[in-house]
Amino acid sequence: MLIPEENDTTVELKGKNAAMVVCWLLGVGCLLAWSSMLTAEDYFLTLYPTYHPTRVLTLVYQPFALGTLAILAYNEANINTRRRNLIGYIAFFISSLFVLVLDLATSGKGGIWTFIGVCFASAAFGVADAHVQGGMVGDLSFMRPEFVQVWILHIISTGDLVAADLESDYCTCKISVSLESRSLS
């Protein structure tokens, strides 16, 4: 792609499309972890029916996200943004892995301690999200504006992925209900 400069010369940008794909992948990686946690709430509801996981996990997530974001915004002049982004993405990975290992280690059995572990993972998602959201927008703002736009597209794309997953669950449920009603008649 050729970009005009102030002195009527053009500069060729190499790798811009690849960088835009990387920005989109980083954005999806940021939101996909929490979206998968929200998608698994039906599973958590069957494991922990008396603990109200659909409400509690969000209520645990928000204070940690807002508190971490406030601390990071207050100390933004002293923070290395790239390290902040790496810490956030590593925390997303570790939290997602923790939820999987916790479920496998307990063989899918509920209990208060397992639920507290899932709440701990939800809080870690909040801390990771606060690290990544502001840090990525800040870093990408120093680059081309298209990078910020592509990174923001992750909100739309992960919403579409979750909606497609919910739609497939709805269709599967609808098909199984219609088959059951035919077998009863």
Contiguous helical run count: 6
Query: How much of the polypeptide forms β-strand, as a percent range?
Result: under 5%
Give the fraction of residues assigned to helices: over 70%
- State the shape: elongated
Give the spatial strand order of the biggest sheet.
Answer: 1-2
- Return the average pLDDT rounded to an integer: 79
Helix/strand structural class: mainly alpha
Structure description:
The chain is mainly α and about 180 residues long. The protein has a domain at about 65-150. The chain is built from six helices and two strands. Helix 1 runs antiparallel to helix 5 (about 110-140).
Break the fold down into its secondary structure elements and pairings.
Blueprint: E1 2-4, E2 10-12, H1 16-39, H2 41-47, H3 53-74, H4 81-105, H5 112-141, H6 145-184
Antiparallel strand pairs: 1-2
Helix pairs in contact: 1-4, 1-5, 1-6, 3-5, 4-5, 5-6
Keywords, separated by commas or semicolons:
Eqnu_transpt, transmembrane helix, 2 strands, 80% helix, single chain, two-stranded antiparallel sheet, 185 residues, transmembrane, disordered C terminus, membrane, mainly alpha
Summarize this, please?
With 185 residues, the protein is mainly alpha-helical. It has a domain of 87 residues. Helices cover 80% and strands 3% of the residues.
